[in-house]
Amino acid sequence: MKRAAFGHIGFPILLLIPQLAIIAIFFYWPAGYAIQSSFYLEDPFGFGSTFVGVDNYTRLASSSSYMSSAWFTLIFTSLVTFFALAIALLLAVKADKVIRGAKTYRTLLMWVYAVAPPVAGLIGVMLFDQSRGNITQLLGMMGIEYRLGVNYWDTATAMISVSIWKQIPVNFIFFLSGLQAIPRSVREAAMIDNPSGTRRFWDITFPLLAPTGFFLLIINITYSLFDTFGIVDTIVKGEPGNNPMTLVYRVFVDGFRGQDLGGSSAQSVVLMILVLILTVVQFRFLERRIHYT
Amino acid sequence: MSDISETHTSAATAPTRPARRFRWDTVVDHAVLIAGALLMLVPVYMVFATSSWDAITIHRNGMQFGFGDQFGVNYNAALFEYGGFTDSVNGVTMLANSMILGLGFAIGKIIVGMMAAYAIVYFRLRFATLAFWMIFTTLLLPLEVRILPSYEVITDMNLGNTYTGLIVPLIASATATFFFRQFFRSVPEELIEAARIDGAGPVKFFIDILVPLSRTMIAAMFIIMFVFGWNQYLWPTLITTDESMFTLVRGIRQIIQSYADGGETPDYGQAAALAIIAMTPPVLIVVFFQSWFVKGLTESDK
């Protein structure tokens, strides 16, 4: 709050009403509803619901297919986060170094940000298609039989590659601005002390970039968990079957295909807790981060 | 301040650097960057090239690198041919719906967010902190997580297949409010003191001083939010069952479905054309307004 603030009461409330009304109706109500219905078992034909306590949660914990989705989500998130960050960092370091064409490279490397995840998924489906996908044919020539939608890990690799591809631009932009925020004087001092580029990177640049990196780590985990929905859905072509699934996709599949309101709500609550933990971590870190800047 | 040190040191270090090694480094740098740029460009280029071929060629040989002669036919079909189960939707309708969703979402979110942020930052409200935390909590929970209950709430309110049902629930997250709050807090206090001495009330201060000051921030937010709204997928998929309400990104799902069902030879060329149409507006906006876009993205972490 500003020191010299206005003293009115009615006007600010009027300003807050649209925002508060929208989040009350479209956020708190559904969120509360999710928590409530996670303790109930809904009749699939709409004849009321029964209170079952934590049954929906124990059912999740003992469901092998839910557990395999959880494992897949863990692997998926780690791989996407790691490769999207690593490739983007490499590109940002190079783009920060070159003088000629720096702006062109920035443009060429960032525009994929604007491509919708399902469109990226469609590109993936066309490239990895079982019979006529270009990458499938390329792999076939090397003697690898690639079967999207049939082989679990073949489908998973397609999802992971497309998700990494889609996320590189965002990481690239953040890393590049992070690098450009490092003061010239620091770089030049390092240049004099240490002529080896690699050593200089790991000893000076990398630690200075760590705050950006940590922030991006959270962003990437959130992306892998939630924003890849469109990619996952297009690659499994709306036919979950035995295909790999992320936890968020499962909320949708169990809720809308399986008509399991209670189970889907319990999954929502589990994810809410997960995001809550992530946010707390992020905040703890952001508070510390003030010292860096 | 940095100018001085820059000229100094570049003059000092440049001659000491061996010219040949420096050039070799640069070649590697450019090679890595070109490889990265190709990784980003080639898949989309292939979709574009493929959109110029007939369905049979694509069905037989997969995506194409060269150009065919079916550009006009495919784009014409993607835009104007009525498709779907009810024959009530074509590319132009979907384009219009995507535009309404993108613009409605971006404008709605900016207006609602700025108003709330102004109230939180500039007024002595007893419950300002409570309101802030209530709003802030919404950052925690993407729509995807509470998807089923949200869907139930919207259908209970009879908002299915309406633009309100499509746009307003997406606004129920506080990203814009949060960014504007951070921005307003960085506006110097002297401004409001001066405005008060001049006798400006809260409405005048907001419209005449704060809004013009936030121009770049508004532009950056607008670009990010428009792209975000345009690219929405899950919510439009659920809430619009009526085909005349489909957005372009939603239409992509229909294409994939025909891929999966595979009864008849799907019109791949047309599908590729629709994908290109769906990505063009947001990509153009990001490319043309990239400095604002980058500013908006990178400031959001502060």
3D structure, described in words:
The complex is a heterodimer of chains A (about 290) and B (about 300). Chain A contains twelve helices and two strands. Chain A is an all-alpha fold. Chain A has a two-stranded antiparallel sheet. In chain A, strand 1 and strand 2 (about 50) form a beta hairpin. Chain A is globular, with a radius of gyration of 24 Å. The mean pLDDT of chain A is about 85. Chain B has helices at about 1-15, 20-50, 55-60, 70-80, 90-120, 130-135, 145-155, 165-170, 175-185, 190-195, 200-215, 215-230, 235-240, 250-260, 270-290, 290-300. Chain B is an all-alpha fold. In chain B, helix 4 (about 70-80) crosses helix 15. The model of chain B is unreliable at about 1-15 (pLDDT under 50). Chain B is about 75% helix and about 0% strand. The longest helix of chain B is centred in the N-terminal third of the chain and has 32 residues, at about 20-50. At the A-B interface, helix 1, helix 3, helix 4, helix 5 and helix 7 of A face helix 1, helix 2, helix 3, helix 5 and helix 6 of B.
Write the layout of secondary structure elements.
The complex is a heterodimer of chains A (293) and B (302).
Chain A: H1 10-37, E1 40-42, E2 49-51, H2 55-62, H3 64-97, H4 102-110, H5 117-128, H6 134-141, H7 152-180, H8 184-193, H9 197-227, H10 229-235, H11 247-257, H12 261-289
Antiparallel strand pairs in A: 1-2
Chain B: H1 2-13, H2 19-50, H3 55-61, H4 71-80, H5 91-122, H6 128-137, H7 147-156, H8 163-171, H9 175-185, H10 189-197, H11 202-213, H12 215-230, H13 234-239, H14 248-261, H15 268-288, H16 290-299
Helix pairs in contact in B: 2-15, 4-15, 5-8, 5-9, 5-12, 12-15, 12-16, 14-15
